[in-house]
Specification:
Elements: E1 2-7, E2 14-21, H1 22-25, E3 28-32, E4 38-41, H2 45-49, H3 72-79, E5 91-92, H4 115-120, E6 123-126, E7 130-132, H5 133-136
Parallel strand pairs: 4-7
Antiparallel strand pairs: 1-2, 2-6, 3-4, 3-5
The structure holds zinc ion (2 copies).
One zinc ion (ZN) binds at residues 8, 10-11, 13, 99, 101-102, 104.
Length: 139
């Protein structure tokens, strides 16, 4: 985890937070739809236990879709495992990170509805708070 400052693309405020490298720690970040909170998915055994398998498809494989859009139904299955954020928003893979000051998009529309951009985003930016998967699971 590294201290980091990002200037918000919506309000230009300098936002302090931590950058978390997702690649080395094998995590995925699901941002809230309406506040800066982020859900960190790191326990992949959860998915196995719940019968969700991650498709490892290359371009041209059967079932593969442009921009890795074949991942969207998997994303939805995973998102359905978690409670909503305490603000009432929902944690989704394709949500872009939000600014704690203006609640606008901190880095713009970073994923453009293309899972491949999400997969290539190797860092999560945590400003106000994060929650681990295990603590957000539905009962
Ligand atoms: Zn802002
Ligand atoms: Zn929220």
């Amino acid at each position: 985890m590294n201290a980091h400052t990002v200037s918000c693309q919506s309000c230009n405020a300098q936002i302090a937070g931590s950058m978390i490298h997702l690649g080395f720690s094998d995590m995925q970040a699901l941002y809230c739809s309406s506040c800066p909170c982020v859900l960190l998915l790191k326990d992949w055994t959860l998915l196995e236990k719940l019968g969700i398998s991650w498709p490892h498809l290359q371009a041209g494989d059967q079932g593969w879709q442009a921009w890795d859009r074949h991942l969207l139904p998997i994303y939805q299955k995973i998102e359905a495992l978690f409670n909503p954020c305490s603000c009432g928003g929902t944690f989704r893979f394709m949500n872009s990170p939000r600014c704690p000051k203006c609640k606008g998009l901190l880095r713009g529309d970073v994923y453009e509805d293309k899972p491949i951009l999400k997969e290539r985003d190797l860092y999560a930016f945590v400003s106000v708070g994060s929650i681990y998967d295990i603590n957000a699971l539905k009962a």
